[in-house]
Amino acid sequence: MIKEKINSGQMFAWMMMFEIGNAIIINIGMEAKQSAWIVILLAMLAGVATYLFIYVPLFRLYPNHSFTKYTQLVFGKYVGWLLSFFYLVYFTYVSGRNLMDFGALTSTISYNETPISILNGIMILALIYGLTRGIEVYVRSVEIFFSLFIVVFIFGVLLLIISRQMEVNNLKPIIDNGWKPIFHAAFPLVYTFPFAEMVTFTMFLPFLNNSQAAAKVGVISILLSGLILSLTTLLNVAVLGVYHTQNAVFPLIETMGEINIGEFLQRLDSLVVIIFVITSFFKVGTFFLAAIIAASDIFQVNNYRKLALPIGIVILLSSILMSSNFVEHLDEGLNVLPRYIQLPIQTGIPLLILLIALFRKHIGRGARQEHDQKE
């Protein structure tokens, strides 16, 4: 059992940075057009319900074990081991996907002469170094960069308001085609990305020094990150319009590029790059760390830090080789992954584990009561 501990404030900042991640810059929910911001709020509520009624009860049943550890306790040595290994592959794969997002954006916007493999390599080397220092050190850095993120985000929103680039009519009409397109856009895509990705924190909740705060910290972080993402989408539509937002690969960059205050403050899309680099570092790193802990559980490695280098190399290679181009990468992530991979992993399997664990607990309690009555 890893003995490192983190406090509630650190866990809150970590969850916020993870949830916002690359979702703040990638187009989500735009199937519902002007109602895209409602899509995010709806998916956010579903994410809160999943966290509160599946992940937290599992943590309370097994407060000293990570997800891949109690999966083996519930399903047994062989089936449990295979399921845990499946989650190891999932965490590694999704970390690689997020690393690919980082490399594609920074290469497109700021370093168009630099190969994506070099940018991804720099990111993964920084993460390997950080994670070998330990969880406590890594999470303390989250606190620092979370403060920077909040300052940059608020500054950008204020500049948009001052520059008067927003057009309220772009947000109308709301819910013009009823609720069906909104639900269709919210489920499974926006629900699974990013809100149900909180399944990753079932690997980290045992590190919380106050286990009673797990529910409160998680719910508040999901709600606030959902509000930030919803506000970001609303601003994109208000500034760019529905059509332009739908067809932009990175709409927030174009939105911030519209800022022009007195011909002096303009072309501030670099603010988005700063936000994205910060949030991507911790998004990739969180999945990376989950994969490390899962591997240490599965292969019974006492010092999890030793696994940072080999798993980091696998993540780097997967980010380079998983797709032939960024369009294919996005199509796979938006159309294939949510329905066939993420829904079972994020919701289906954890719910099944919870039901089996509760059933066994109930049976065990009944057996003990029967034994006590006989005595």
UniProtKB/TrEMBL annotation:
<dbReference type="Pfam" id="PF03845">
    <property type="entry name" value="Spore_permease"/>
</dbReference>
<feature type="transmembrane region" description="Helical">
    <location>
        <begin position="114"/>
        <end position="132"/>
    </location>
</feature>
<feature type="transmembrane region" description="Helical">
    <location>
        <begin position="339"/>
        <end position="359"/>
    </location>
</feature>
<feature type="transmembrane region" description="Helical">
    <location>
        <begin position="307"/>
        <end position="327"/>
    </location>
</feature>
<comment type="similarity">
    <text>Belongs to the amino acid-polyamine-organocation (APC) superfamily. Spore germination protein (SGP) (TC 2.A.3.9) family.</text>
</comment>
<keyword id="KW-0309">Germination</keyword>
<dbReference type="InterPro" id="IPR004761">
    <property type="entry name" value="Spore_GerAB"/>
</dbReference>
<feature type="transmembrane region" description="Helical">
    <location>
        <begin position="271"/>
        <end position="295"/>
    </location>
</feature>
<keyword id="KW-1133">Transmembrane helix</keyword>
<feature type="transmembrane region" description="Helical">
    <location>
        <begin position="12"/>
        <end position="30"/>
    </location>
</feature>
<keyword id="KW-0812">Transmembrane</keyword>
<feature type="transmembrane region" description="Helical">
    <location>
        <begin position="182"/>
        <end position="205"/>
    </location>
</feature>
<feature type="transmembrane region" description="Helical">
    <location>
        <begin position="144"/>
        <end position="162"/>
    </location>
</feature>
<keyword id="KW-0813">Transport</keyword>
<feature type="transmembrane region" description="Helical">
    <location>
        <begin position="36"/>
        <end position="62"/>
    </location>
</feature>
<keyword id="KW-0472">Membrane</keyword>
<feature type="transmembrane region" description="Helical">
    <location>
        <begin position="74"/>
        <end position="94"/>
    </location>
</feature>
<feature type="transmembrane region" description="Helical">
    <location>
        <begin position="217"/>
        <end position="243"/>
    </location>
</feature>
<protein>
    <submittedName>
        <fullName>Spore germination protein KB</fullName>
    </submittedName>
</protein>
